[in-house]
Amino acid sequence: MQLENQVPDVEEKKSLLGKISYKFKGYEYKTREEAEQAREEEIIRTKKETEQNEVRKQIEEALEEKRKEYNAEPMYLSMPVACSYIPDMKQGFFRKYESNLAAYVDVDSLSEKIDIACRELYIRGYEVISITQAISGVGANTIWGKGTDKSAAAGWGYSFTNGAVITAKKR
Hints:
171 residues; 36% helix
């Protein structure tokens, strides 16, 4: 379909007093030439807009293909591995109970999960390039004499292993 057919025609209007005017897209013009000029400008604008939309569409399609290509086979891949904890058990008078003071990383379970993840990456065509420990921490501090020349601070904190992050590169 040509753009000329998409853009409305100039309409000729006659007033009650017999005066002729020309209307195009809601605007009135005194002469047919002015109205036709406005119509031609609209055709050119519509043509440019259509061309720009086509270019945008082609760019979007190309980007979508690249996204699919990248998402299908990323060059690098990271895989988190969470660890399990063994609670610290204390012996009470009648039974054992969790102290809630500490927990220990289940190293055997973590090692097994890392091994499984590395094998999965290898099967998918990746070579492991790093295994990094994931650590979280807790802490607090107190400041005495804030804003004076004799201030002091003290604090405490600890960190614990959450697991590991395995990064691999496509072979």
